[in-house]
Specification:
By secondary structure, the protein is of the alpha/beta class. The chain has two domains: 124 residues, Rossmann fold; 183 residues, Rossmann fold, CATH 3.40.50. The protein has 13 helices and twelve strands. The strands form two sheets. The chain has a seven-stranded parallel sheet with strand order 8-7-6-9-10-11-12, with helices on both faces. Strands 2-1-3-4-5 form a five-stranded parallel sheet, with helices on both faces. Strand 7, helix 8 and strand 8 form a beta-alpha-beta unit. Helix 1 runs parallel beside helix 12 and helix 5 crosses helix 7. The relative contact order is 0.15. It binds NADP nicotinamide-adenine-dinucleotide phosphate (NAP). InterPro entries: D-isomer_2-hydroxyacid_DH (IPR050223), D-isomer_2_OHA_DH_cat_dom (IPR006139), D-isomer_DH_CS1 (IPR029752), D-isomer_DH_NAD-bd (IPR006140), NAD(P)-bd_dom_sf (IPR036291). Belongs to the D-isomer specific 2-hydroxyacid dehydrogenase family. GhrB subfamily. It is an enzyme of class 1 (oxidoreductase). This is Glyoxylate/hydroxypyruvate reductase B.
């Protein structure tokens, strides 16, 4: 019987599904040596939110497939997996809408100061009619700049254009004709997007090319009234530069779901800024979506071990037996 290592707890029915096909060994990724030892005689692995380094896979000669319960795959060295002939599967699509909801929550909460003012009410500060000191900024009719208009960026663009009458600008390496046709999105280069957007929303994958793509210079290029929204990965933004920009009024505010270090350390300067809405990486975190992701990842893994997986493959080259992929 095949052996699968799970380094994330899975819903009962998903675990039962995996157990119909294989022996499942659940490991605590914090117990590093036991985790690596379990991988050594495994055929497959499933999990999320843990860096899987090439060194951890040395000696894992039976390993045929890894399945991440996420769409992002920055926790893996994809080229190394391809060289080893290991299929990497991920879960696009099932999380697109709930993640776009999180992005839009951040846009609305940052602009309308929802979290800050709800805390103000709870603290008993609402003692007279509110005035300009509690006013926020409009969202409807403004310009949204999406850096990385793919699946999630497209779902954000739909909300913005059709629901909030916003103008949508975007940067991608390639055009997104559907978003241009359906949401009136206009493809521009990054400097033009930064100069014109009221909300700059990052939805790129984390790659060597996108790491720190928003740094001090890019923040200076944004409008003083602009709000930065990041629900991609923390490292797409230079966090120290962002803290500086917020403290100095270079930009108006930020709505953040992701950070350099997660959980965000309690002494982070970001937590002292009223202009920041900080969420604990909840992008896809609804009961329904997380269940769908786990199910999808489990089905991907079993199909990959059977050699029948045709979708959701990150490193398609592995199937052709050729190495080297631009991830
Ligand atoms: P996707 O469909 O692949 O979209 C990514 C977009 O980024 C594509 O349009 C791509 O277009 C663009 N892009 C890639 N590299 C770029 C670069 N160097 N410069 C400019 N644009 C670039 O992925 P998705 O499903 O929307 O997910 C996007 C990311 O969101 C994931 O990788 C993950 O890290 C993050 N995410 C976070 C959460 C959360 O909990 N906060 C949840 C889900 C996903 P081109 O290829 O044409 O450049």
């Amino acid at each position: 019987m095949k052996k699968i290592v799970a380094w994330k707890s899975l819903p009962e029915d998903v675990l039962a599904y995996l157990q119909q096909h294989a022996q499942v060994v659940q490991v605590d990724p914090a117990q590093h040596d036991a985790f690596v030892a379990a991988l050594r005689d495994a055929d497959g692995g499933i999990g999320a939110s843990v860096k899987i380094t090439p060194a951890m896979l040395d000696g894992a000669s039976r390993l045929k497939a890894l399945s991440t319960v996420s769409v992002g795959f920055d926790q893996f060295d994809v080229d190394d997996l391809t060289r080893r002939g290991i299929v990497l599967a991920h879960t696009p699509d099932v999380l697109t809408e709930s993640t776009a909801d999180t992005v839009f929550s951040l846009i609305l909460a940052s602009a309308r100061r929802v979290v800050e003012l709800a805390d103000w009410v709870k603290a008993g500060q609402w003692r007279a009619s509110i005035g300009p000191a509690q006013f926020g900024l409009d969202v409807q009719g403004k310009t949204l700049g999406i850096v990385g208009l793919g699946r999630i960026g497209g779902a954000v663009a739909r909300r913005a254009a059709l629901g909030f009458n916003m103008n949508v600008l975007y940067t991608n390496r390639s055009a997104n004709p559907h978003a241009e046709r359906t949401y009136g999105a206009r493809r521009v280069d990054l400097p033009e997007l930064l100069a014109n957007a009221d909300f700059v929303c990052l939805q790129v994958p984390l790659t060597p090319q996108t790491k720190h793509m928003i740094g001090a210079a890019e923040l200076r290029a944004m409008k003083k009234s602009a709000i930065l929204i990041n629900a991609s990965r923390g490292a797409t933004v230079d966090e120290a530069a962002l803290i500086d920009a917020l403290q100095n009024g270079t930009i108006h505010g930020a709505g953040l779901d992701v950070f350099d270090t997660e959980p965000l350390p309690a002494d982070s300067p970001l937590l002292k800024l009223a202009s920041v809405v900080a969420l604990p990486h909840i992008g896809s975190a609804t009961h329904e979506t997380r269940h769908a992701m786990a199910r999808n990842a489990a089905e991907n893994l079993i199909a990959a071990l059977d050699g029948t997986l045709a979708v959701n493959i990150v490193n398609r080259d592995v199937l052709a037996g050729s190495a080297g992929r631009d991830s």
